Amino acid sequence: MMASSRKTPVTVIGGFLGAGKTTYLNHLLRNTTQRYAVLVNDFGAVNIDAALIAKHDGETMTLTNGCVCCSIGSGFLDTLGRILDSGSAFDHIIIEASGVGDPWRIAEIALVEPSLLLNAVIVLADASRIGALLDDVRVGDTVRGQFDRCNLILLNKVDLLDRPTLDAARASLNALRPGIPVIETTEHTLPGLPEGRFKPATRFAATAAADHEGSFRRWSYRRDGMFDHGRLEAALAALPPQLLRLKGPCSVAGRDSSQLLQMVGQDWALTPTDDELSMGNNILLVGIGTSGLPPAETLDAILDAALIPQSITTADRNCRTIASPL
């Protein structure tokens, strides 16, 4: 990475699976007059608005507003290095940590790289789930760790709750990080990026990297064909609680376009996908679960039961651990 006399601000966005990081990124890209470089884990998860995309080569999206969106495919440091060495001038670099990652592990790079300036570490929290997640014996340590070094919390989806439930969510966060700024947000009231150098509330000792390799597993489901809506509803209800998140494009009988399936816990929704994500009459879902997630074959069989029978084909099946803590 090449040093530069100009330091580029860096903001890291974190939050557990389903907290709303994708929605926030799209909000920032739609509403900026600056030139952002956005580093993400997976284009399929970001679902950039089709109207924003000027060019897409599989690793980098060039956007019509002058921003670029790079997939962290070959590794975070490699991707960041390409951005810094490209000679392109960006007003801001935004990095999305994965839903099970520690955003501070990424933010530390901005503290040691001479050409970067850490602007903020923002963590989103799903107001409807944060209390339960913090107390969950399977994922609680991971969730709590994401807030340890952030300097701003976006308490998201507050429009789904009544005031007493929302106050309980705020109390959980206040007990975890007393005094930290918390902004209540909805899909339609997300803020822009804060400005100003990162100011941690507390000095923290260095900690060892979390063992995401052993704590979480990823499962992918790929099929040629389409789901029956009623059978899909039953299949999703039958998926085990160890599956924390499921997301991806799919074809559903009776729907005119490819659908984006998003599932967090037992809550799920289907929405039309942008053209960039359309799979035609195909299905590609990615799930993340705890280390106790059943074998891929077991999970495959549950979703196979939701397929229209003639669409069942042999497909790529795998269940692998997450290899990166990003």
Write up this protein:
The chain has 10 helices and 15 strands. The protein is of the alpha/beta class and 326 residues long. A 9-stranded mixed β-sheet has the order 3-4-5-2-6-1-7-8-9, sandwiched between helices. Strands 13-12-11-14-10-15 form a 6-stranded antiparallel β-sheet. The protein folds into 2 domains: 8-184, Rossmann fold, CATH 3.40.50; 212-321, CobW-like, C-terminal domain (Hypothetical Protein Yjia, Chain: A,domain 2, 2-Layer Sandwich), CATH 3.30.1220.10.
Task: Summarize the entry for a quick read.
The chain is α/β, with parallel strands linked by helices and 326 residues long. It is built from ten helices and 15 strands.
Per-chain topology:
Blueprint: E1 8-15, H1 21-30, E2 36-40, H2 43-46, E3 53-56, E4 60-63, E5 68-71, H3 76-85, E6 92-96, H4 103-112, E7 116-126, H5 130-135, H6 140-147, E8 152-156, H7 163-176, E9 182-184, H8 212-215, E10 216-224, H9 229-238, E11 243-250, E12 259-264, E13 267-272, E14 282-290, H10 296-304, E15 317-321
Parallel strand pairs: 1-6, 1-7, 2-5, 2-6, 7-8, 8-9
Antiparallel strand pairs: 3-4, 4-5, 10-14, 10-15, 11-12, 11-14, 12-13
Largest sheet: 9 strands, mixed
Q: What's the shape?
A: globular
**SSE sequence, one letter per element:** EHEHEEEHEHEHHEHEHEHEEEEHE
Tell me the domain tally. 2
Give helix % range.
25-40%
As laid out across the biggest beta sheet, the strand order is 3-4-5-2-6-1-7-8-9
Question: Uncertain segments of ≥5 residues (pLDDT<50)?
Answer: 201-213, 311-326
CATH class label of the largest domain:
Alpha Beta
Q: What CATH architecture label of the largest domain applies?
A: 3-Layer(aba) Sandwich
- Taken as a percent bin, the fraction of beta residues is 25-35%
CATH fold field value of the largest domain: Rossmann fold
Cα-based radius of gyration, to the nearest Å = 20 Å
For the record, give the distance between the C-alpha atoms at the N and C termini, rounded to a whole number. Answer: 19 Å
Would you count the extended β strands for me?
A: 15
Q: Give average pLDDT, whole number.
A: 82
Number of helical stretches of at least 4 residues:
10
